[in-house]
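Entry 14. Ran structure prediction on the chain below.
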Amino acid sequence: MIPSPYGLDRDRPFVRLRFTTFITGTVALPLLGLTSCIFVSCFFHFENAMKTHCQVPNYLPSISASIGLTPERYIWRFCIGLHCAPRFFVAVAYFNFYRRSFTKNVVATPLCYLGLICAFSENIGLLLLTYVSSNETYTIHKKGFMVFVGSALVHMGITCWLWNVIKMHSGGRELLKSYRWKKRLCVSSVILCTAAGAFFWRHNKYCEAGIYTLFALCEYLMVLCNMAFHLTAFWDFGHTDVMIATPPEEKRF
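Output, structure tokens:
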């Protein structure tokens, strides 16, 4: 029997995933891409990856140096290209959750919109620094990195404030765990960002050996904190499913 193109199957989901699987896979993509790029850079392009503008000894490649070489840039672009679309979906999911939670809170409502804007601009900054490497157009790459980091820190701060309110009205164990980890990762990201900025300034000012290595290390840890922060959605939406389906069609007679 040949199924009818307007059969019941058209109203059923094409794809259905546990949200925990969905968010784990989403965060795993940039982690896999980053570790792969650093590994390939260190073992196959060591001299180019460790090069600094003042030729001082350096022992770790910066993220920009790692993802700017070939084939590293293609590995990174492939992983981030797959990663970013689900990130927009998760940002909208959080926004809808916040709107339901803060319908009568005059302070939280504008923060929900600001959080959504920051989540989108963080993602756009990530795409910009990914697809315009520092070896191609440094100025645009630098601006993309600044948009990514700035938006990420503001988004983390807003999220922590909102979840501080949510956990006071909910005794859920997983929500409390999520809030605590969000707060730790937010504070860690601010400290690491400040340290990275200080090391980057010191390297450019004094060209001391090993300072750029410390900058790169702080950069790695900051990005890992960002990934872990987004992974806390594992607890926030752990009991839900992600479903792709066609809308139900009217019956035809």
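The chain has a mean pLDDT of 88. Will compare against last week's run tomorrow.
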